[in-house]
Description:
The protein is an all-alpha fold. Helices cover 71% and strands 0% of the residues. The chain has three domains: 18-211, Leucine-rich Repeat Variant; 223-339; 358-452, V-type ATPase, subunit H, C-terminal domain (Serine Threonine Protein Phosphatase 5, Tetratricopeptide repeat, Alpha Horseshoe), CATH 1.25.40.150. The protein has helices spanning 7-10, 16-19, 27-36, 42-47, 53-63, 67-76, 78-91, 95-111, 116-125, 132-137, 143-159, 166-181, 188-198, 202-210, 213-221, 227-240, 244-249, 255-265, 269-284, 289-301, 304-311, 319-338, 341-351, 358-361, 363-369, 375-390, 394-410, 414-420, 423-429, 436-450, 454-467. Helix 7 packs across helix 9 (116-125), helix 11 runs parallel beside helix 13 and helix 15 packs antiparallel against helix 16. The longest helix is centred in the C-terminal third of the chain and has 20 residues, at 319-338. This is V-type proton ATPase subunit H.
Amino acid sequence: MVERTNIKEIIPALPDEKIDMLAATSALQQQAAEIRNQRINWQSYLQSQMIPKEDYDFIVAFDTSDTKAREAKLKENPHQAAKTFLNLLDHISKEQTTQYILTMIDDMLQEDRSRVEIFREHSSRKRESVWGPFLNLLNRQDGFILNMTSRIIAKLACWSHELMEKTDLQFYLTWLKDQLKLSNNEYIQSVARCLQMMLRVDEYRFAFVSVDGISTLLSVLSGRVNFQVQYQLIFCLWVLTFNPLLAEKMNKFNVIPILADILSDSVKEKVTRIILAVFRNLIEKVEDGQVAKEHCIAMVQYKVLKQLSILVQRKFDDEDITDDIEFLNDKLLASVQDLSSFDEYSTEIKSGRLEWSPVHKSGKFWRENASRLNEKNYELLRILVHLLETSKEPIVLSVASFDIGEYVRHYPRGKHVIEQLGGKQRVMQLLGHEDPNVRYEALLAVQKLMVHNWEYLGKQLEKEQTGASGTKSGAQVPAKA
């Protein structure tokens, strides 16, 4: 048995809406309510010899019992309960009946979490996998069957005394991730609910990250989703940040800019609250002080301070929101006071959202900091080169080209470094870009890579600018060397 910390010991107490899987009315729950009102003719399955007499006797008695009678029957013979339910799922293929059986199992587990052990102990006695029968159902076509099965798997994985095995865990988390990516998935709230449960267990968090889970969450959040799904997926990010290692890695996935955009548009208090909670963890839970500082700078860069100044004027019923606003405001204001131009530049490059901010155009900045782009095995230069290769945004390509040119201009061995990193080739490929500003900045960078006489280059560029009919977005002629 694997001992795990109870989730309420890891995560602060929250309103019930945050931790009860039945909180939000979803398509799955609406359908389940209709299915509960159906009546299954169990007699027909007995007569056709699709189920044995002992399974028939149990399911009829269980199906017609009230809550207390069901509890007594489960305590009297838990092994028969698991055996019957699994036999029914294995031998009955009719979708309507399968939907009904799964709803019964889910309701049974929801009434008492400890009942997950009924299935665990049964599979252990038979030396079979508890996951097999349920994971196989994820290959069915019916959406309700898929997602009700998924709910049951999440409950077994999170409420049992034993963890889900690695291979089955990876399969299930990959299935959840793929369901999130489906366009117009009417069951997306149910998928998100399962993830909310799974990611409360620390051992499952790294498995989710390993299947590219964070990128998937952010990809969905960057699209058009309703506020309930926004809340649920940001909740998943929030739970992940309770692990210090994951909190430190989080903004490498651009969590801060994406959540800052949602925060600026949010009109729902629950969405605002959960974003602020994520931001707080990104400062408070990380153990590396430098990473916490970088997170603060990123929040300042993406106008979180401005949003806090707006939020502080609103009245919230939830004291946690007020507390988080005060915490973030204090931390971000302090980071502004300590902010160096290189900190600002480094944070912007790592975010991948380049713009013509003043630091790029500052000759003083480049004279003082060009050599610092060599730090951490040329980390920032590698990011710039990667952006030249992958970005579709003209302004990003323009700024990245300009920065590479300025690095070469101010660092003596810059040309050699950029060539070794593949930057020269990337810049030259942009000479044929469709955007005139990108072409101009690429040309400027190529000339810096190839010309030694800066005074001559400056004069040539001045002539080129004078003769150009188009305008440039933030382009700058280099000063004399």
